[in-house]
Amino acid sequence: MRLVIARCSVDYVGRLTAHLPMAPRLILMKADGSVSIHADDRAYKPLNWMNPPCTVREKPGEDGTSVWTVTHSKSGEQLILTIEEILHDSSHELGVDPGLRKDGVEAHLQELLAKHITTLGEGYTLIRREYPTAIGPVDILCRDGNGTTVAVEIKRRGEIDGVEQLTRYLELLNRDPTLRPVRGVFAAQEIRPQARVLATDRGIACVTLDYDALRGIKKDEMTLF
Amino acid sequence: MRLVIARCSVDYVGRLTAHLPMAPRLILMKADGSVSIHADDRAYKPLNWMNPPCTVREKPGEDGTSVWTVTHSKSGEQLILTIEEILHDSSHELGVDPGLRKDGVEAHLQELLAKHITTLGEGYTLIRREYPTAIGPVDILCRDGNGTTVAVEIKRRGEIDGVEQLTRYLELLNRDPTLRPVRGVFAAQEIRPQARVLATDRGIACVTLDYDALRGIKKDEMTLF
DNA sequence: CAGTGGATATCGTGT
DNA sequence: ACACGATGTCCACTG
Q1: CA neighbor of A113 nearest in space, from A77, A146, A82, A156
Q2: Shared domain check, B126 and B55
Q3: pLDDT category, A86, cuts 50, 70, 90?
Q4: Which of residues A215 and B92 earns the better pLDDT score?
Q5: Which of A35, A41, A184, A207 is deepest in the core (most CB within 10 A)?
Q6: B68 has pLDDT over 60
């Protein structure tokens, strides 16, 4: 990663044509070949940029300037930087990043639903989250008001896969005499029609989760179908 | 603008929950208060970030680490950076950026239409682009197949303003005996109904420009109303 | 209505 | 079905 602070002007010719007048800016050149030009505002969004794959050609310009031409390898788009003065220039080896782990909506929904398990219905009690089975953990195992065991599968977007997964869990759980009978609840922020049809056909209830509501603002906005 | 290269781990708690394991990264702190954490790839997109308005609190952590807590002033979202080692740290005054000037679609459309002026009709010939008048340049001045002068106003989105502008040009141009009579053509990627009505009422033809078609893929896809 | 800024969402693509 | 990357677009907000 190379960090350059320089007085530069920039011209972009590609999907549109754009120009940046001469001013001091950050030029961020990453190991993936990308180049982005940042001002001291606009949060993380650069003023202009070039995505990989691209190549940088550096050559002298007029009046002692230096011209960096960044060319996109496929589209031919160009970013032309005219450098008047370099105020800082440093390079750093960062290596490959382990990357972002999103505990994301699914995990968060699970946590919230476990905490507010009665949103599934009155008298519901949590048995445990991530209830282990031979084919993987069930997101939530709980009991309804009648004491019947309920297995809950949580997804951000409920699709057929999720229904199939829950079906497998239910089949397995229903072999356990201490749990049997086990009902299924398919919970997601958004449930695709096909998934809903399949779930209903298998006697699995569908619950649409309202994330904000679950976060505790208003618990009542959860709708049960 | 402060540039920090540091071994850090990051936890984000907000709209979702995310974690970044300890690794060397760029921490970009802008004058607007924003903080973004970049790996050496993914083009201009940071691994994680916090938008303004936010505040940064720096305090010692365990084992000699330093913990930077970035808190969003309104939502309370937090970005927690645990810094193990600082490899680079520099600050730079950039001042306010003059900002991006998008010559954008309009200039590009003008260029393309000038190049393919016959897309307005058979026998059309270009007089010149940016034809100067006392009240500003006319985007394109050309002649149709009959030798009649035609003034073209080009916009990305055709609104009433553009029609008014073209009307003023036409009024002026029609005073010139060497050009008179001058017809008007209002060309845009998208023309608002009101603008179209006004233009038609004034005897100005409307042309919807197909950007991709003009770019030379298929010249025929331009539609004349 | 025009101009600006922000998107951890959503979409599309590829596997 | 899923993961990843890109949005140079789109929308919502402001004045």
Answers
A1: A156
A2: no
A3: very high
A4: B92
A5: A35
A6: yes
Q: Are residues B137 and B179 in the same domain?
A: yes
Contact A33, A52 (CB under 8 A): yes
B113 has pLDDT over 70? yes
Cβ distance B18 to A46 less than 8 Å, yes or no, reads no
Cis ω before B181 (30° cut-off from 0): yes
Chain C footprint positions (protein CB, under 7 Å): 1-2, 4-9
Q: How far is CA B184 from CA A130, B120, B159, B180, B195, in A?
A: 71, 12, 15, 12, 14
Give the angle subtended at the CA of A179 by the CAs of A177 and A183, to the nearest 5°. Answer: 120
Average pLDDT, chain B: 85
Q: Using an 8 Å Cβ cutoff, are A152 and A140 in contact?
A: yes
Q: Could you identify the residue whose CA is nearest to the C1' atom of nucleotide C9?
A: B15
Contact list in B for residue A96 (CB cut-off 8 A) is: 40-41
Q: Is the CB of B11 under 7 A from strand C?
A: no
Do B36 and B66 touch, CB atoms closer than 8 A? no
**Confidence class for position A220, pLDDT limits 50, 70, 90:** very low
Of A23, A40, A51, the CB nearest to B1: A40
Q: Which amino acid is at A175?
A: R
